[in-house]
Amino acid sequence: MRLLIKLKIIVKKYFHKKMHGLLMGILIGDIDSVEKETQENFRGSSLEHMLAVSGAHVSYVLLGSTYLLQKLKFSKKISNSITIFLLLFFMALTGATPSVIRACIMASYLIICKITYQKPQILVSLTIPMLALLIQNPYSIFSSSLQLSYGGTIGILIFCKPLQIVFSEKFINLKEDSLEEEKTILKKMKNLKQKIIHKVIEMLTVTLSANLIVLPIMAKTFQTISITFFISNLLASPILGIVILLSPILSLFLQILINIASWGAKLPFSKSYIATPSLWVLILYYIFLFLIFYISYLKRKIRKRKFEKRILKMMEILKKRKRRFFLCSLSVILIVTIFFSILPKDLKIYFIDVGQGDSTLIITPRGKSVLIDGGGNRDTLQFDVGKQILLPYLLNRGITKIDYIIPSHLDEDHVGGLLTILENLPVHYVIMTKQGKDSQNYQKLLEIVKRKNIKLIYVKIGDRINLDRQVNLEILWPKEEQITENILNNNSIVCKLTYGSFSILFTGDIEEIAETAILNTYTNKNILQATVLKIAHHGSKSSSIEPFLETVNPKIALIGVGEKNTFGHPNKGVIERLEKWNVDIYRTDIHGEISMVTDGKSYKIKKQIQD
To answer: Facing residues of 495 across strands?
Structure first.
């Protein structure tokens, strides 16, 4: 630990702030000092493995120690023993994360096999580190670090050699029988150009092999994928070796590495948000992947084994009957699609727990997505609700685009998360009212909408929006002549969503003055009645007056409120008034996410956290 502290002090002393953080990330996997922008760029260009000590780092440690010990003229056994000690020391120095434990123990096992003249077994080399990790912490099997480390290693072991054979045959004209050993390859190559192409193929196939397994894990964990990973890895991998081996003269190379990550993150398709894949999708992906590689392997070998003959015979049958097979498959798909399309669908409403704020996701029967408010945080420098809660939540729900975004008003705790969604996901429409007051959030929203060509619709009292078949949104407030007192809150959009006999009233942050004005506006009080009421202003004492609750007459009340908030929300008087009217109360600080499903007649409500 002392050595680690000393290393941090030395690096901090001799390197610029941006550089020393990156160097600590590369050398020992400590990313606490790495700037957030740099971390995002490394992730966006699929170089995040360089900031988590992995097999590449260990291989460079091995390379450096082997070269140094050879120069010092130690015997092979002593050199190998010292190398194992250095690996264990390196493992302790870097905090013994799952990826570095796997790499160091695996490398140590291979060295021990070399010392004892034993043939290394691939399964044993993978199993020993896994056992060590599970003994240390059984829950580490759920660690993304472990999954990515093992996934990348397994991908390289399975796919690297077949891919090198394919690419070498195509680009260097080397046949499979000449690809058994590295020395044979280099002898067969007649010029420098071939050798360079071989090295490029080597780096590309290692990266591609690892990513074939790792990409679905990345999609499941981070909801992003990159299809330009090979470009950034091809450019950055040699620089990583230089950084690790030549740490005394690193500034130039670190800056190059930062520039590559920044450039790679800006490439088209470098970072694409995707819906979190289900377990079945991952299983099918890996089955499909292995089938493709195994069948192509059988085609290349064409050995005279009964099993392989059967496989090839089946492939020939499929080839002959492919038209019939295609028509049958298409018919089944069409029948299933038609069947599911005519089934009655439900309206789904998710009242999201975004802390001290409001956010509601609505999925219509035909799959349209509506997001009313998006939470936020007044201290966005420390915690971005949109990026860290709302965006992952939507991706986990399978939402990769939003049809309608409706900010009730532009206070940070309602619109902050929406700005993140507008930046990162495709959005068709933004629905809002004319603003009585300019604000920074309003300018940000307008800038994003303009830059991304999103349709902006201004609504007013009396407008009606047809979201889906039998799903309508009625705008009940504000009026053209706005309330000047607390202008943003009291001119929040108040809208009523209806589906059959089910309805929900959204009230933003309106206060008593607005609630009274709404009651005076509508002579027909039925228009304000709703099955569910989103309680205004997080249950503030300035809202939810008794005449308003009496008119709306809800069965369910939803309160979006943060745990241990400093505002005293929800107010005790509001809770007492709701209880007086026998309203069932659901709060995000107590129940977490609250979800409702309705067919337009009956409804079901579910709490994430039970009382």
So the answer is: 475, 506
For the stretch 352-407, pLDDT in tens is: 999 888 999 999 998 899 999 998 875 545 678 888 889 989 988 888 899 999 99
> Which residue's structure tokens are 């205004």?
536
Per-residue pLDDT at 549: 94
Question: Could you please report the per-residue DSSP string of 528-555?
Answer: G--SEEE-GGGG-TTS--HHHHHHH--S
- Spatial distance between the Cα atoms of 27 and 46, rounded to a whole number of angstroms: 18
Residue of 165, 154, 180, 164 lying closest to 290 (CA atoms)? 154
120: number of Cβ within 10 Å: 13
Q: How far is CA 507 from the centre of its chain?
A: 31
Strands (E), 440-583: 455-458, 464-468, 471-477, 494-499, 502-506, 532-534, 556-559
Instruction: Using DSSP, state whether 475 is helix, strand or coil.
Output: strand
User: DSSP H helical segments within 553-594, as ranges?
Assistant: 572-580, 588-591
Phi-psi region of 405 (alpha: psi -120 to 50; beta: other; left: phi over 0): beta
Pull the structure tokens for residue 337.
């699609």
Q: What is the DSSP string of 145-161?
A: HHHHHHHHHHHHHHHHH
Cα 84 to Cα 483: distance, rounded to the nearest angstrom: 74
Residues across the chain: 611
Cβ pair 404, 370 in contact under 8 A: yes
Residue 62 sits at the vertex; the CA angle it makes with 60 and 64, to the nearest 5 degrees, is 70
Number of H helices, E strands in the chain: 24, 17
Query: Residue 278 is which amino acid?
Result: S
CA angle 461, 464, 470 (to 5 degrees): 150
CB neighbours of residue 1 within 10 Å: 7
Which SS3 state, helix, strand or coil, does residue 565 take? coil
Would you state the pLDDT for residue 304?
45
**Predicted confidence band at 464 (pLDDT cuts at 50, 70, 90)?**
very high
Distance (Å, whole) CA 105 – CA 125 = 8
CA distance 196 to 275: 39
User: 506 pairs with which residues across the strands?
Assistant: 495
Amino acid (1-letter code) at residue 334: L
pLDDT in tens, 290-306: 777 766 665 555 544 55
Lowest-confidence segment of 81-90, 176-185, 204-213, 337-346 by average pLDDT: 176-185
Handedness of CA 544, 549, 552, 553 (dihedral sign): positive
Residue 51's closest CA among 35, 20, 33, 28?
A: 28
Hey, which of 89-103, 111-125, 300-314 has the most confident mean pLDDT?
A: 111-125
Contact 197, 234 (CB under 8 A): no
Measure the CA dihedral 382/383/384/387, to 10°.
120
Quote the distance between the C-alpha of residue 376 and its chain's center: 19
CB atoms within 10 A of CB 602: 10
Give the model confidence (pLDDT) of 504-560 as tens digits.
Answer: 999 999 999 999 999 999 988 899 999 999 999 999 998 999 999 999 999 999 999
